[in-house]
């Protein structure tokens, strides 16, 4: 009788142990955790101060197995001997989500630039165009190294999934973490 009860409990937990993370939940998480300000380049010669705080998320909208992110940032480009330039950079990425059990979080992998829009589209000076690539790389690196969502240990269902070896699927514009 005890075995039957244990097997029934395990079956019920494994069959109902899934958690859907919606675009809205990921958006809320990123709004709280994904802003930054960094400098790229060599100060005194050619560098850019980058402010990044706006990401829009889409799950399975561009491709069935990918998450798309539209990132907006502002950069002040300073090149020795030239006037300071302000640039607005809108870049769209797509990436494959994966679940990291050790972190209890969803990360992105296989990041691809889908589109890039720079305003103004004509920059003064030779060095300014060479600073755009490191800015886009910086944004991409931050998206790859920071979670887009972390499971909540205070929520019973999420804490059960966090300790298991769940798989991550994209269904109905949500990320589904399930056993």
Name given to the CATH homologous superfamily:
Uncharacterised protein PF07273 family, DUF1439
**Rg, Å, rounded:** 21 Å
Q: Strand order across the biggest sheet?
A: 2-3-4-5-6-7
Task: Calculate the mean pLDDT score and round it.
Answer: 80
List the secondary-structure elements in sequence, H or E. Answer: HEHEEEEEHEHEE
How does the helix and strand content classify structurally? alpha+beta
Could you name the CATH topology? Bactericidal permeability-increasing protein, domain 1
> What number of structural domains do the residues give?
1
**Total DSSP E strands:** 9
Helix content: 25-40%
Largest sheet: 6 strands, antiparallel
- The 3D shape can be described as elongated
How many individual helices?
4
Q: What's the oligomerization state?
A: single chain
The name of the CATH architecture is Super Roll
As residue ranges, the low-confidence spans are: 4-15
First-to-last CA distance: 26 Å
User: Any idea of the CATH class?
Assistant: Alpha Beta
